[in-house]
Design goal:
The chain is an all-alpha fold. The protein has twelve helices and no strands. It is extended and about 85 Å long. The N and C termini lie far apart (112 Å).
Length: 251
């Protein structure tokens, strides 16, 4: 095979690999979030995999605010190579767009740093590693969720705490209504912020003295208030309506 054929084959392989990288996670990704913490295997591989899926969920949540199509959205986040926008920038962009508020931004940055420890540390690292376990203790969602769901038990180990935080974030990013906004999300406000839902109605505005009377006068002038008179509101107080030309001629 000539050099041209070799280059063509390499180009096809790279193109197919890029298509695979661009492929979005299927609904079965939720199964990964539910089950990975119960499976044996490399903590490093598990943490990197589940964080990669969570980062993709974050992209999807941010993308609900975009007006471009799917292809352009993928290219915005770096295309096939993913070099365009870092995980940290995506977290801050989600905060700027109102997808998340400050407490969850801090939670995601802790998760990102734990992911980086697994991805970049050359030494053997597990969730039992002192520094990783200490970082997992900083996660707030496992402490704020009193029920034992969705893990099915109280999260005691560092791995369980990390898994619970990641799974709850996945549920919000993946399943909530578009566009993602924490202020309008019942899940976010009830589970993450522990706020009542729906939120209580705000009290009616307090009008300054004399404002109600002034509003009534202004409504009459503009014709907004009903009048028992048969004349149009603007004519009220201005005397009888002018007669038509025919009536004037008969006088």
């Amino acid at each position: 095979m000539g050099r041209g054929g070799g280059r063509g084959k390499k180009s096809n392989v790279v193109n197919e690999l890029n298509k695979l990288i661009k492929k979005r996670a299927s609904p079965e990704a939720s199964k990964v979030f539910r089950e990975w913490h119960n499976q044996k295997g490399s903590h490093r591989a598990q943490a990197i995999t589940v964080c990669s899926l969570l980062e993709q969920d974050l992209e999807e949540a941010i993308g609900t605010h975009f007006t471009v199509d799917e292809t352009q959205r993928i290219e915005f986040f770096g295309g096939a190579e993913g070099e365009g926008v870092t995980f940290a920038t995506k977290i801050n962009l989600a905060y700027a767009l109102g997808v998340i508020e400050e407490s969850i931004r801090a939670e995601l940055h802790i998760i990102r740093r734990i992911r980086n420890a697994f991805a970049h540390t050359r030494d053997n690292v597990t969730f039992s590693t002192k520094q990783v376990a200490a970082a997992c203790e900083l996660l707030t969602l496992p402490k704020s969720v009193k029920s034992q769901l969705p893990l099915g038990r109280e999260p005691k180990s560092a791995k369980d705490k990390f898994a619970l935080s990641v799974q709850l974030l996945h549920l919000y990013f993946y399943a909530d209504a578009a566009p993602r906004r924490f202020k309008t999300s019942s899940f976010y406000n009830v589970v993450f912020l522990k706020l009542p839902w729906p939120p209580p109605a705000p009290p009616p505005p307090t009008l300054p003295p004399g404002a109600e009377k002034m509003g009534g006068i202004l409504g009459t002038i503009l014709g907004l208030n009903p009048s028992p008179q048969t004349q149009p509101p603007l004519a009220a107080g201005l005397g009888p309506a002018p007669k038509s030309g025919g009536e004037q001629d008969r006088e």
